[in-house]
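Inputs:
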Amino acid sequence: MSSKKTPGINSTSTADIAFLLLCYFLMSSSMGSQSGLSRRLPPMPAENQQLEDQKVNRRNIIVVRINSSDRLFAGSEPMDISQLKDRIKVFLTNPNNDPDLPERKLTAIEGLGEEYPVSQGVISLQNDRGTSYQAYIAVQNELVKAINELRDEFSLARYGKVFTALDEDTQEIVKDAIPQNISEAEPVDIGNRR
Amino acid sequence: MSKFSKRPREDAPGISTASMSDIVFMLLFFFMVTTQLRETENMVQVNTPEASEVVKLVRKDLNSYINIGPPIRSLQAQYGNEPRIQLNDAFRSTTDIRDFIAAERESRSEGDRQFMTVSIRADQNVRMGIITDVKQELRRCSALNIMYSARKPAHLE
């Protein structure tokens, strides 16, 4: 009877609608990117095991303390946070072979081809229960910054690139040469000890 | 030279855009499947501290979050404004962390379990006491890979 053709639905705008949705998901999926400071906790000693006195030479350890009013002490001297990075760098490099600073032990590193004097220094970070999280992270950040700068210096001298520009295997070599020895010791109440 | 101009000018055939929507839909489905919208609601205010040396998280799917901070405004009448620990979508205490970690471990495939990371998202004004408790509990559960959530200072971005 009726020879009228049904008009087709105009579908040119579906692409636009889909683009709109696409843009929404593109934006929302990249927004929640997480960043932070990565750490590895030491394993808990077993209950019955006596806490052994770890024989770390006195010169090899620097105690960084933050007390309950967010004051910083590095190696028992009060210090501003802006000085901490340089103090740690001197501690880890020991440029003048000071007998009070950590020894550097010649270690063969796989892939480096020669022995490199690896610093034996350990940074021991202690905090009080009343320390604010902000101050704690600021100190953690300075410690990482000191180590990152040392790694960059090492990478530039050896490979002519900064640490992050190196490939993964080379990064491992640099990590072996300049280890990140930050120990978050057993919690002690600094406030009560004095 | 004359090779190109010899042909008589005719209307270039229009490119059919009918398949464009199909292509875009395909992209759309891809992003819809891969995107992870936040599945839990924040019940604590978390203003993460700033740190310049932050690194990006490599695998987001292997991450579990522990939020620590004062309860949000609407819950302060009920819970006060002392910092609390939020696991999934409820306030918990440090003793519940063990179960939380066990459940998180269970939900990951066996090969991935050793790479699991616990992200501590704590407010910058929280005291270290509560975080030390959490850290000790995590050590007891041998969930040793942790990450202190922090953001890059605005001027370095």
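The radius of gyration of chain A is 27 Å. Flag for discussion at group meeting.
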